[in-house]
Design goal:
CATH architecture of the largest domain: 2-Layer Sandwich
Largest sheet: 6 strands, parallel
Strand content: 5-15%
Structural class: alpha/beta
Helix content: 25-40%
Number of helices: 13
Shape: globular
CATH class of the largest domain: Alpha Beta
Number of domains: 3
Order of helices and strands: EHEEHEHHEHEEEHEHEHEHEHHEHEH
CATH topology of the largest domain: Transcription Regulator spoIIAA
Length: 393
């Protein structure tokens, strides 16, 4: 494009996406673009997509239509996990000008400059995910009172219900030094709370030392990172976002319990209360491990808040297994989580398995879990000292 113009953003999905949208926005700002509200009719719309939740295609189409209603002549660029997984599908959505994959999205300005020369709609720039090796740091600022700070990206796990390794590549991390520097930058901007985010943040450390032709070895662990961040002046509170139960070690729990700045808050995905289904999902823990982690947290931090992700539609989950699954997060408040986050649709390869749970049954189970969530959260607030416990969000 000949001259910088106005740009607007729309983010679907997780905290990690919000951190990256904000960093992409700063790229535009540094290049002289003016960021405007989505409804103002921007010259360029950037849609950051998600592939984890249901109906990714429908949500993306809806946002594109909304953007073009605000400015029919706008250029529409789609990035994010869904853009990496289904670039040609997105390119076929009426009104989409450019689709960028995981390796290309942080070079968005290089492609924006050529948009006016594009021969037609739906230009795709999305390479193979196995070629994505670099860690690109990112943090959010200005859209919320807290900042989401990206410390890790990608995942080496092969869970049957999750497409994230296909969308974001192998696990890789920032260095402890760079994360601390970013935290200090955020503090200098006046932000008082930082949420550490990534795809699998408990696996922090991968990629901190690149050795030619070999798998990078870890120079640091997640415990090293949070110990360093606890010394950053100017930040009142750090919060750990989702962390795998098998990676939420006793050392991490003990440190958070006595730290100066880390909130007593853990979000640990459970997915299923059935060991058979956990094995089918290729999870790296048993239900007993999950319960032990929660018991350890509650023993050291009785006021701590624990959130949980749970899947209501994994194939082969019959009524008896779902009942066992439901009983685990339904246990007494001091044992298991007051916050429940629902996932409804298994991704590849689970979506290809026999015994897919019908949509009507998933909706029924969603209702049961929603009732459980509504019961446990108020109970936690009523029985936890203080009217706004620091662990609860």
């Amino acid at each position: 494009m000949a001259t910088p113009q106005s740009v607007a953003f729309y983010t679907l999905g997780c905290k990690l996406n919000y951190s990256e949208t904000s960093s992409i926005g700063r790229l535009f700002e540094d290049a002289g673009y003016r960021e405007v509200a989505f409804e103002e009719g921007a010259d360029i719309y950037v849609v950051n997509t998600c592939s984890v939740t249901d109906f990714a295609d429908r949500k993306c189409r809806k946002v594109v239509r909304q953007a073009l209603r605000h400015n029919p002549r706008a250029f529409v660029v789609v990035v994010g996990c869904y853009a990496q997984l289904k670039p040609e599908e997105i390119a076929g959505i009426p009104g989409v000008d450019l689709v960028l994959g995981a390796a290309e999205k942080f070079r968005i300005l290089d492609y924006i400059d050529n948009l006016s020369k594009a021969p037609g709609k739906g230009m795709v720039q999305a390479g193979e995910i196995r070629e994505v090796r670099d860690f690109v740091n990112a943090f959010s600022f200005g859209d919320r009172t807290r900042s989401f700070l990206k410390v890790q990206d990608g995942c080496d796990y092969k869970c049957t219900f999750c497409t994230i390794p296909l969308a974001r590549g192998r696990s890789r991390s920032d260095t402890v030094e760079n994360v601390v520097d970013n935290a200090r930058r955020i503090a200098d901007m006046g932000v008082k709370e930082i949420v550490l985010t990534g795809v699998n943040i408990g696996d922090f450390g991968n990629g901190t030392e690149v050795i030619e032709g070999t798998r990078p070895k870890k120079e640091a662990m997640f415990i090293d990172l949070i110990q360093a961040l606890d010394e950053v002046e100017g930040i009142s509170r750090f919060r750990i976002s989702s962390i795998e139960p098998n990676l939420c070690t006793d050392e991490i729990i003990s440190f958070v319990a006595q730290s100066k700045r880390f909130a007593p808050h853990f979000h640990m995905p459970l997915q299923s209360g059935s060991n058979k289904l956990l094995a089918l999902m290729r999870r790296r823990y048993l239900r007993q491990v999950y319960a032990e982690r929660v018991a350890q947290i509650k023993s050291l931090m009785p006021h701590g808040c624990i959130g949980v992700d749970t899947d209501r539609g994994i194939p082969r989950r019959n009524g008896g297994r779902f009942s066992r699954h439901l009983r685990l997060p339904a246990r007494p408040r001091r044992e298991l989580p007051p916050r429940v986050h629902l996932f409804g649709k298994a991704q590849y390869p689970a979506a290809e398995m026999d015994g897919v749970v019908p949509i009507e049954e998933r909706r029924r189970r969603n209702g049961m879990l929603t009732i459980l969530r509504r019961e446990k959260a108020p109970l936690f607030l009523r029985t936890t000292p203080g009217t706004n416990p620091p662990g609860f969000i």
